[in-house]
Every structure is written in structure tokens, then in C-alpha cells.
Amino acid sequence: MSHVVKKRKLDKTRQDRLYFDSYTDVTIHEEMIADHVRTNTYRMAILRNSESIRGKVVLDVGAGTGVLSIFCVQAGAKKVYAVEACSIAEQAVKIVKQNNMEDKIEVIRGTVETVDLPEKVEVIVSEWMGYALLHESMLNSVLYARDKWLKPGGIILPSKAELYIAPIGDPVVEDRLHFWYTVKDRYGVDMSCMSDFARRCIMNSDITVNSVTVEDVLSHPAPFAELDLYKVTVEELRSVKGKFRCESFGSAAVNAFCVYFTVTFPCPDKPLVLSTSPFKPETHWKQAVLYLDVPVDVVQDTVVTGEVSMYPSEESARHICIHVDYTIGEQKRQSKTFSIPDWSSETQP
User: Any idea which residues carry the catalytic annotation?
Assistant: First the structure.
């Protein structure tokens, strides 16, 4: 399929339809429920907050199959409004009924921006995070719900998000680039000139969602942004940015950065953290990998500094762009902007 047609900006209705349509198939819900780190952390966080949830009214933003709503009832919620925009809401109704919770959970089909709840709520729960935290995330909807429906003193689960960055060396990329130098030995045809073309194709401006192994991480990750869900505004989400500083562990070639996030749930004993770090068990979010144009060699304690800026794409407000200004060691400052490839605006009439 050719993707040479120039991207055009999608109107918001079209953006939303494409986004919600992606949740109508069973596969994405299977992937999310099967993600034990994700689902079990939410379950534990909700149950540990049972004192704050018991007897209270809860709003589940983007409820999906309704699993978080059910956890809230198990934690003692008096009433849960499970708001879901896509057709999976029909399955959520069946799941709620199968668990004999129809008297406690009301599934409402629609976006949180358009539905009308009969009352304000004391708790908002939502699994809103996307790739690199903000790609196709529902955070704007959670903030809308916070401002319109949450009573003063109410709680939000999770309540904080943090973004991290680290330089990495992806050996798979180096193997793919080196491959073109091996063709002559294999077949008697010198194709080493393909290496530069391969580098441009592979180390492009796409945000690649991939699992980064611990061995590939070349420094301690550095935090560069924090979002307090009680305070952050939609306006502030138009540009989430911050500076970072890392020091490399040893001699290696940096050919990419990886970006990942954590979200934190307040709990009576101690906070519970859901992490997508490469140093933690894998989640379905994996990590966002940003390839440099050219690898840079580092030695132990080489300083890597820079600034990351995340903002909505011009084509679709739900799609995130990541701009990185960075300096590695004595090299001059470099800049590169990344986005997750999306062909929907070209393949749809």
C-alpha cells in the first residue's frame, strides 16, 4: 500500500471515531486484561483504598469492559457510573450482570464530555494512559470529569504520572545495518552501499513502541515531567516538557532514547506505583523508542543532557509528538522530532 498522499488534518469527530472504533474489537481488551501488571496494580490500588471508596459514588472514565468498576464495588462502592463511548459498553453490561452488580454499576454509553450524570461523585477511577503516556490517552477526558463531576476533597485513581527518558543502545538495529556488509560473503554481491539507506529507513522519525531490555539501557533513567492529576490543566497538556541529565554506565554506542512512564496511586499505607520501566516486568505499553539519526559512542560517565517536549500532532489531537534536544558528551547539540505513524488520514475517504 502506498502512503505517499499528504496527510491532512482530521476533524475532531473523525479523530474520535477512529479512536473509539479501535476499541470495538476483543483483541485490545484481551491485551489490557491479560496485562497482569496493569490489571492487578489497579485492583490492589482500588482495594487498598476501600476506606475512601466504601459507601461512595464512583465515576469510571472510559470503563471498557467494566473491570475497574467491578473492583470498585468489591471495595465497597455504593454506586459506580461506568462511562464508555464505544460499543464494548454492550459487553460491559453483560459482565456487570454476570457478576450480579446491576444494582451498583450503571453502564452509560457515551463520552464523559457528553453524558449527564444524576449526581456528583467522590471518586474518579480511570485507566487513561497511552503509549509514551500521552499518545491516544484519555487524560483530557479525566480532567473534564474532574472539573465537572468530582466533589471537593474527592480522590482520583491514579493521582500522579511521571515521565522518564534514558539513552539506549539497540543491538537489533546495529545487526540490521551490519547485515548489508555480510551479503557479499553469503552471495558474492557487495551490497554495503545499502547501509546508509537502511539507516535512514530504520533510524527514522517514528516513535517505535518496543520492549527495551535492561542490558540495552545505558544510564540511570532521568525524570523529565510530572503531572498532578488534581491540578494539571488541559492547556498545560498542550506542551509537557522538561530537562534531563544522565551519565552513561560504560563504553557503548547510543543509537536511541527510550521514554516510559509511571503512575502513582495514593494508598493509606504507602503509594502504589504502576511502572512501565524496562527495569520492571513488561506491560502492554512497553517503551517508546526514539532513534537518533547517527549513533554516538560514549564511555563511562559521559554526560547526556537535553530537553524533551511532548505535544499533540497537528494531524490528530489524540496523537503525540515528541521533540528532543540533546547533547551527548562533547558533541554539538542535536534536535529531532518524533511521532507515531498513522495512515488513517490517508487510507480513509
Answer: 127, 136
